[in-house]
Amino acid sequence: MNAETTAKHGPPSPLIAAEEAISALKAFDAIIDVRSPAEYAEDHLPGALNWPVLDNEERHRVGLLYKSSPFEARKIGAALVARNIARHIEAHAEPLSRNWRPLVYCWRGGQRSGAMTWFLGQIGFKSRQLQGGYKAYRAQVREALLTQPAGFEFHVLCGRTGSGKTRLLQTLAGLGAQVLDLEKLAAHRGSILGALPDQPQPSQKGFDTLLWQQLSQLDPSRPVFVESESRKIGQVRMPESMYEAMRASDHIYWLEMPGAARVELLLQDYAHFFERPDYFCAKLDALISMRGRERVQGWQALARAGDWGTVFAELMRDHYDPGYERSLAGHYPQLERARRIQLADGSAPCLHALALDLMAVKA
Fold first, then answer.
1. Taking the model in full, what pTM does it have?
2. What's the half-sphere exposure (Cβ side, CA atoms, 13 Å) at 25?
3. 106, 158, 281, 350: which is the annotated catalytic residue?
4. What does the alpha-carbon distance between residue 58 and residue 154 come to, in Å, rounded to a whole number?
5. 106 counts as catalytic
6. Alpha carbons 37 and 195: distance in angstroms, whole number
7. Distance between alpha carbon 261 and the CA centroid of its chain, in Å?
């Protein structure tokens, strides 16, 4: 664009369409989310930094005022936004070169991201503003997830609780196989005891973003190993397209392991309960309606006495196994044709040998 054209039409717009931006996220030097910390925590673009131009309390206060007086809200909001932008520039801009190229976004691609983009542009940075903001990005993710899973060949690992499915996934990943660990993305093991210690689950939007991002990094021409799951993993729900793609797989494996070895794995995986028996017992209260108060209280007594091996052996036999097998038969109608695999235990050599065997199977 020459000087005459620029003078006639003005500088090029910093706006960039969501589809174009999302397909080229790696081309930006940084992704700047200017929404409040609460909005950012619920979900954000992959790798985004949070430079809020209004914090949680400020956004709430300005929003309330806007309902009665938009003009007054804009005056107060403008002062707050300017001060906060100045703070971010002072904190972050000094080491950046003039060729720094950030992508800036807010909720709808409006005033908050527009203000930050303008300030950065005035400095001379090559800033771009995401048109439509997070809302447009979210729409792109939701649309992608409608069709993305169907493009992969999933190899689904099934098996009773404690049979080593997650460890097998980890071993496969370590050997270079493509793996989709849904429980890791959901930060939950998928049962009443499945919450991970000191690690909250992502929001539903956050889980969708993590799943979309993971699928985007996988090669559709290669198999993808995944653990069997129901529609919900803790409090997050799998997209129906993902559930159906797994359910339609022609590659189903049923892992079997002796009971004693399964109990040993459960004792390792749930060791965080040993120091918190009351917390464990409170979780078991959810089973009273299914297993009866007397039986659940018996398990709670064993836990408080420190007899964890008996607790998990009985939970496995009387709760997890019957429920899992009934549920799985409904999720995977082709389960009867699954390839049966015997694992002696959850040791590294056993898992390594099995992983190599699965990787050698031709699609």
1. 0.92
2. 15
3. 106
4. 46
5. yes
6. 24
7. 30
